[in-house]
Amino acid sequence: MKLKSIIIDDELHNQKNLKLLLEMHCPEVLVLAMASSADEGLSLITEHQPDLVFLDIEMPRKNGFSMLEDLQEVDFEVIFVTAYNKYVLKAIRSCALDYLMKPVVISELQQAVQNVLKVVEHKKENHKLKTLVENLKNNQGPKKIALSTADELFFVAVDDIIRCKGENNYTMFFLTDKRSILVSRTLKEWDELLSAYGFIRTHQSHLVNKKHVKSYVKRDGGYILMEDGSTVSVSKYKKEETLRELAS
After folding, report:
1. What InterPro entries does UniProt report for this protein, alphabetically (predicted)?
2. pTM, full prediction
3. What is the CB neighbour count within 10 angstroms for residue 190?
4. CATH match of 3-137 with 3.40.50.2300
């Protein structure tokens, strides 16, 4: 099948370069139109009803995220194309969405397109993108993140995460409903994503949600007691920082 696509990027040379790469290396993609602004992109989406949008994030006047918020319904796939911005990447990665860094690497472009094809061919709803848009719109409410295991993709409210435990290149999530979910990403990566939501790195192997901390126990070198009854180690190097974060 052909993926009907639109490219939205405020820089003309980026539009032309991506279109050329797609023509040369991704024959399954048909570029119907290109836009130089978010508002123009919205018009083209309404006109063409694409399967896939290649969306630049940082554009003048209205960025890519704001454009998605303006849509009543996002019924297409998105591959984000962006220069490095740690805040933008956090938002995208927390929902397990595909993104391409500029300049675009051909192998990464091909893989992202294949991921979209799998979703479109099976007519699956893009819960990842839906979660991102909900996060963007719902500034005050509980955010969600996507936890991808070998077999399933779970969408979990950040407030429902009690703690995380690092296990080599994996991270185990412990939730308020008693579930535990093992994800193949390091604790360091989740620390970077969750620190803005009140999570504290107490130890090389432990990350806790401050909202679910019951107390700090001083004996036995000091450890944290969580609301679910579990205990979490606090390293001597993290003790001062942990206590400061708990008190704030």
Report:
1. CheY-like_superfamily, LytR-like, LytTR_DNA-bd_dom, Sig_transdc_resp-reg_receiver
2. 0.61
3. 23
4. yes
Instruction: Give kind and range of the element (H or E) at residue 172.
Output: strand 170-175
Instruction: Please report, in angstroms and rounded to a whole number, the separation of the first and last CA atoms in the chain.
Output: 54
Tokens representing 170? Answer: 């994996």
pLDDT digits (tens, 9 = 90+) for 155-186: 899 999 999 999 889 999 999 999 999 998 89
181 SS3 class: strand
DSSP code for 170: E
Question: pLDDT tens digits, residue range 110-167?
Answer: 999 998 988 887 665 566 666 776 766 666 556 888 898 888 888 899 999 999 999 8
Rg (CA), the chain: 21
For 14, the token pair is 């980026």
Pairing of the two strands 153-157 and 161-167: unpaired
CATH fold of 144-247, please? OB fold (Dihydrolipoamide Acetyltransferase, E2P) (2.40.50)
Side chain identity, residue 172: M
CA distance 82 to 112: 14
